[in-house]
Amino acid sequence: MIFKNSQLIFLNFALMKKVYLDNASTTAIRPEVIQEMTKIMTEDFGNPSSTHSFGRNAKTILELSRKNIAKYLNCSAQEIIFTSSGTEANNWILRSVVKDLKIERIITSKIEHHAVLHTVMVLESEFNVQVDYVKIAPDGSIDLTHLSNLLSDEKKTIVSLMHVNNETGAVLDLDRVGVICKQYSALFHSDTVQSIGKTEIDLQKTSVDFILASAHKFHGPKGVGFAFIRKNSGLQPLIFGGEQEKGLRAGTEAVHQIAGMSKALSLSYENLDADRKYILELKTYLIEQLEIHFSGFRINGKKDDFYNIINIILPFSADKTSMLLFSLDMKGIAVSRGSACQSGSIKPSHVLKEMLSEEDLKLPNLRISFSHYNTKEDIDWLIQSLKTL
User: Fold this and answer.
1) Which residues are catalytic?
2) Which of 40, 112, 222, 334 would be 116's cystine partner, CB 3.0–4.6 Å?
3) The dihedral of CA 302, 162, 340, 219: what is its sign?
């Protein structure tokens, strides 16, 4: 009897409506990307460093992918270096500027991704580099006046501030920060993992020295990304071995993943206007439904932050916090309370900790993040499910 009940529960779960609203963590791979990768794995499996025809074919795919990515960012193909992830790129850039370019100070914020924050902590300990944290406003935005004040103390500095916050969607004005950094002769590094493929970035107009991307954030494969390293930066490798990637990143390139990333980026930018309009309509609809059914809810950040992310506090008692995600998961709904990289932690979000009171931190919050695959029916099911909690 117990066995039959277990089978019934499993069957009900399998037939349940599935709703994926955690696109800031990762995205579904587009079918065209899978097709592109499968073709290359089948037909173009050569090592791009080999000189025979198989290697030359793979090398051609690699360099065409590099040129394609550079085209969408309006930079030189030589400035695109392939990596395994955004985390690797952040580690490489920050470590090299301190170790090799002799940067004396890092200015960052306490709401950065841990790929930056933890790297900075290690560099502070290892190289005794000075670390200053720019102030954060209650809406999650960066205090640019404080940034200017920090930079007025002349030291060899890099500013590391993310473009779009992965938990709240707060958007940094890249152009303005670039101008400020240039004014004080500081290097500027921005973690653009949440924005590449979802908004325009013109590297001829924006004065940023280093940005980066991870393909799985824009409907590409996991395990591959890239860094933009402005020419003549002087960066040195983090990984040593062969001469791949202009001698800056040793190791045989994952050609099928890189080609998949290039295809995913093309599709993202070709469909950008339509997808952005559609997703913004979904976000607006969600806010309208929350206002109708949960009048006491609050948005962490601003209503008009980045179009595909919203972080909310629900008008529930604090004792529902621990079971909220589990309860929604049992109804087939995937959402989060912040970065997936910290999902196993019982600590409150380090981002919200900088924005909220101790009392508000204890209340149930959700990060809901959309893609073009979502529908209004997904939101209706989320609202209906929240009403039963």
Assistant:
1) 341
2) 112
3) positive
